[in-house]
Amino acid sequence: MSSLRAKLGILAAGLMLSGCMQATTYQAAPEATLKPADKAQLAKARYAKGAVAEPFRRAIVDYHRREQPGSIVVDSDNHYLYLVQDGGKAIRYGITVGEEALAFSGIARVGNMAEWPKWTPTADIHKRIEGLPASVPGGVDNPLGARALYLYQGNRDTLFRIHGTNQPEYIGASISSGCIRMTNEDVIDLYSRVKQGTIVVVLAPKQGDSPYNSKMALQGGGQATTH
Fold first, then answer.
1. What is the CA radius of gyration of the chain?
2. What is the pLDDT of residues 167-178, one digit of tens each?
């Protein structure tokens, strides 16, 4: 009898702990957000279309920070972007972020939005990467991918972007030239849910270890790039 009671006690403790854990529901981006032009472009993709590692797949999660529903929160430390929803939930997307010296943090807003945008490398990128063209037309081979959200502070373009990628294998890594990359399917989904003027909170380094707490510590800065 004592052995049975002990087992029941362990089971009850496990159930209580599971009730405190973050609820995560993985959901692929709905195909309804894909326009005919998107499907045509994605069908021509020459990059590998392997599955993103499960921790970085689009998911519905519990969210307990103080940002208003509709806000975007970027946790660069953990490679997540959150679109805050009503009812203590958020849509969480896996992302690629900038290397440490190229990262951006602070509060911005979506100042412009574009579908299948062209890419114009900055002078800084030209210095670091030789042989780049002056610009690359929009399309599935463009480094900005299917969509771009241009981040502004006041009326100033920060030159940082949230955009798609033709290198989905790097979702979950820190290898970009400063911008925030998402899979093309995920950035199309995000684009369909936000509008110009949306607030974007990019957490400063080491502030992303507890993405669900209510403390917000932000700092401005970073190196301007377009990719």
1. 19
2. 999 999 998 777
